[in-house]
Specification:
Two copies of one chain form a homodimer. The first copy, chain A, is of the alpha/beta class and 400 residues long. The first copy, chain A, has a domain of 171 residues: Carbamate kinase (3-Layer(aba) Sandwich), CATH 3.40.1160.10. The first copy, chain A, has eleven helices and 20 strands. The longest helix of chain A has 25 residues. Chain A is globular, with a radius of gyration of 23 Å. Chains A, B: Belongs to the aspartokinase family. Chains A, B: It catalyses: L-aspartate + ATP = 4-phospho-L-aspartate + ADP. Chains A, B: It is an enzyme of class 2 (transferase). Chains A, B: This is Aspartokinase.
């Protein structure tokens, strides 16, 4: 059985950690696992490289930025392979390109187009541990590319898919919890979660795995294990809903505190005006989310959406342009709200989940403002001050 | 006219230096030069990477070491290309492999097998400055390889050869001097020097350019300019002897203080014994040089050779094995000698150069011990204490 292990930057932050991972992999290999390791850059290396680039240019050329950033992972995999060799374990490091990973799309956020696993397989067949630089590949022009946020997870799942392998994502948390344990210490660890729920939770701000990687897992039906490095296998397994027996309406709660809510009020009703507003926002490449629109009794529009606090400067520019273009609109930014979301594939078959959510909040005197729903999630904004109570009450209600 | 510029690590030691080089290149490009830049790793990067590897393993796997070290140059070229882009100058960075450099031979000391310049040419034709990572290439297995000491010079000359270009090596000295100016401050800068003399001087310890790069220049008749970065063109040009008009017997003096002289005395005369001694030395891959052998009047052999001080630990192991194998021999290591060498292609046509050298030394009461000669050089060992006097007297005698 081939297993793809992925180790993140914090698991490989220094040379001692690299040696520990090497020794762990060596033991598993001795026990018969055929192992492909996908490694990220050591610790904060990628950030340091980006800082250097920013000192050269405010907006560094992205082809060159990719080539620069890719060196981080190349260094880790070479060092990890040396460490395995030092332990007497045959191994070989490969860059994304050497590993057969072809990408398409823009530099710094490319997507994996295809994986040709024949080089990896030939090394596995010669008894080697194969160590692949995550986060990177090569496009058809022969340029080095990177995959953007969470790219190493995507590399790992894509390699697992091409090898018909299991994928194991090792990180510094010991699995996926129904609620962030830093917020709700009684939160339960989830043993099994469906791809859909995991994607929804990732989208809604639970920072453990990137959506794209989970999506790829779903597409190619790759079982993805998420757990702590060097620990027992008591983490979380992400798989198809069909394979999960448990039947709960809600699997997890996520909190997103990194948001501004933008309210645009008393707009004269006009589709072209609304479209114009979103065109302008789109031009600035703002990540906007949780859009809701209501028609008031007066026949005007109330429009609101959330956007990330980290994109504040972009948002301000966008709003300035909006105000210039559409003089009639009034815009308010609220920074004292958080988004609380309940995710669960069971929601589809359990009716009355939304009612139960709103009842629970109301009984505890927690006002909620904007509401959006998807097939498997309900999100609403509440005041920051109610974060703890709302989480606890909802967790108790849905047995999380 | 295509020109290959090579910048060493000290010219690119920090981001400000990289920006300065970018601005210099940009101006030359505006003035019409088609420029290919070969860059080394920034400052001490390569040493730092080797240190990391040594912390993982005393003898790191050399394939992985190559892949690790190659990231240094990849980083520099990406940053330099960003800096050019920032100045509005179109440019592209290429790894050794992307630039079409194929290597053969062992990892960490590969040789360039061939250069396919078509990618470089296509970028030049589109008006770009092309920036190539020095010191590296890819072997036929697709592994990243490095070229060993002075590898970036070799990359630059090989690219120049494949492009029919001139090669300009920019460094932190302003040219090649007849004698190291730190030893003899009146030393003259050499305007033209032949490939042969330059190779001999490099071999004899003048640390400016690696022999291999000069050899390659000779083979493909690439004119090589050596001078200081960002300065006027008043350095040294290395070219064919035919193109040099000047007719002096001696072009330069080199001093090598990094040597031990090993004397083996009173050996019974036997070819197989001498061969056995060199076989043993060869097994330890010691760089031995300046071998001299004399038959004494008593019919025994005196044998001596020089070897690098930096290889002391290897030498000690070799001597131990020699003593075990050949119990009859007595070995003495002398560490108080230096080698002084006079190099000049003119020596071939000027008779009596050796006599003039020895006379000069004798007149100044400077004893000289071991002597070796090649077609274009005379070397002898003298005491460290006589370094200054010997250099000055010989420089005056030969007008250097």
């Amino acid at each position: 059985m081939i297993v793809v292990h992925k180790y993140g930057g914090s698991s490989l932050a220094d040379l001692d950690k690299i040696k520990n991972i090497a020794s762990h992999i060596s033991k598993l290999s001795d026990a018969g696992e055929q192992i492909v390791v996908v490694a990220s850059a050591m610790g904060k290396t990628t950030n340091k490289l980006i800082e250097m680039a920013k000192k050269i240019s405010e907006t560094p050329n992205i082809r060159e930025l990719d080539s620069l950033m890719a060196t981080g992972e190349q260094q880790t995999v070479a060092l990890l392979s040396m460490a395995l060799n030092e332990l007497g374990k045959k191994s070989i490091s490969l860059t994304g390109s050497q590993a057969g990973i072809t990408t398409i799309g823009h530099h710094t956020k490319s997507r994996i187009k295809s994986v040709d696993p024949k080089i990896i397989i030939s090394h596995l067949n010669r008894g080697k541990v194969v160590i692949v630089a995550g986060f990177q590949g090569m496009n058809q022009k022969g340029d080095i590319t990177t995959l953007g946020r969470g790219g190493s997870d995507t590399s790992a799942v894509a390699l697992a898919a091409s090898l018909g392998a299991r994928c194991e994502i090792y990180t510094d948390v010991d699995g996926i919890y129904s609620i962030d344990p830093r917020v709700y210490s009684d939160a339960k660890k989830i043993k099994y979660i469906s791809y859909e729920e995991m994607m929804e939770m990732a989208n809604l701000g639970a920072g453990i795995m990137e959506t794209r990687a989970v999506e790829l897992g779903k597409k190619y039906n790759v079982p993805i294990y998420v757990g702590e490095s060097l620990r027992d296998h008591d983490g979380t397994l992400i798989l198809n809903q069909d394979e999960i027996m448990e039947d709960k309406p809600i699997t997890g709660i996520t909190l997103n505190e990194d948001i501004f809510m933008v309210n645009i009020q008393h707009l004269p009703y006009s589709e072209s005006l609304v479209a114009g507003i979103f065109n302008t926002l789109g031009k600035f490449e703002l990540n906007i989310d949780m859009i809701s629109q209501n028609i008031t009794t007066a026949g005007t529009l109330d429009l609101s959406f959330s956007c990330f606090k980290r994109e504040e400067s972009l948002l301000k520019k966008a709003i300035e342009e909006l105000k210039n273009k559409f003089e009639e609109i009034s815009i308010e930014i609220k920074s004292d709200l958080i988004m609380i979301s309940l995710v669960g594939i069971g929601m589809v078959s359990h009716s009355g989940v939304a009612a139960k959510v709103f009842n629970t909040l109301a009984e505890n005197k927690i006002p909620f403002y904007h509401i959006t729903t998807s097939e498997i999630s309900i999100s609403c904004t509440i005041s920051k001050d109610h974060k703890k109570t709302a989480t606890e009450m909802l967790a108790r209600e849905f047995d999380l």
